[in-house]
Amino acid sequence: MNSSYFLPNFWRFAGLVAAQAIILSEVALTAEGYCNILLYPLFILFLPIQIPTPAAVSLGFLVGLAVDIFSGHLGVNASAGALSGYARAAILHRFAPRGGFTGKEIIPSPANFGWRWFLGVAAIFYAIHVFWYFSMAYFAPVYLLEKILPQAILGWILSMLVVIIYTRLFHPKV
Q1: pLDDT at 6 > cutoff 90
Q2: How many CB atoms lie under 10 A from the CB of residue 10?
Q3: CB within 8 A of 33, min separation 6: which ones?
Q4: 39, 100, 118, 165: least buried by Cβ within 10 Å?
């Protein structure tokens, strides 16, 4: 990662982890787990496009581990963050412009690609992340229809609403 991109990503890491640990984990606790809003995956999604996949997996693991440390669910967010770091490359490859990325687009954001493109990428990225998160939280196929899918669908919808609000408020470009 270029050194000029380090500071914005560091502040994004710190801000998203703090928001997840201080605000959004409390929302999940008061709603007895049925209202999980996951904002920290935006750190992984907003990493520079050209970052190598192993670095994205490692950073996804680190941001998930940071959230796990504050929330007390060791391993669940770290696992989902690592998977999201890996899936991000495949999603971006699938949604790449016809000629590929030019290098002028620093991060996959609406400022660089438009809202339609961003929402498509974010929706798939978050669907993978949220489904894996709840699969690891319950870790048993017997809960698939009873707990995993309903909570994943609700968590995806709520998380996407917060992602749109966050992206509109902060308008990330780097």
Answers
A1: no
A2: 10
A3: 151
A4: 100
Say which DSSP state 80 is in: H
pLDDT of residue 33: 62
Q: What is the pLDDT of residue 3?
A: 63
10 Å Cβ neighbour count for 91?
Answer: 19
Q: How confident is the model over 69-108, as pLDDT tens digits?
A: 998 878 999 999 999 999 999 999 999 988 888 878 899 9
pLDDT given at position 129: 97
* Residue type (1 letter), 139: F
- Rounded CA-CA distance 123/19 in Å is 21
Q: Which of 5, 18, 117, 115 is nearest to 50 (CA)?
A: 5
Pair 70, 17: CB distance under 8 Å: yes
DSSP class per residue in 117-128: HHHHHHHHHHHH
Residue ranges per structural domain of the chain: 3-170
Q: Both tokens of residue 16?
A: 């998203």
Six-digit token string for 132: 């894996």
- In 3D space, the residue among 80, 92, 85, 10 whose CA is nearest the CA of residue 55 turns out to be 85
How confident is the prediction for the chain on average, in pLDDT? 90
Cβ atoms within 10 Å, residue 43? 26
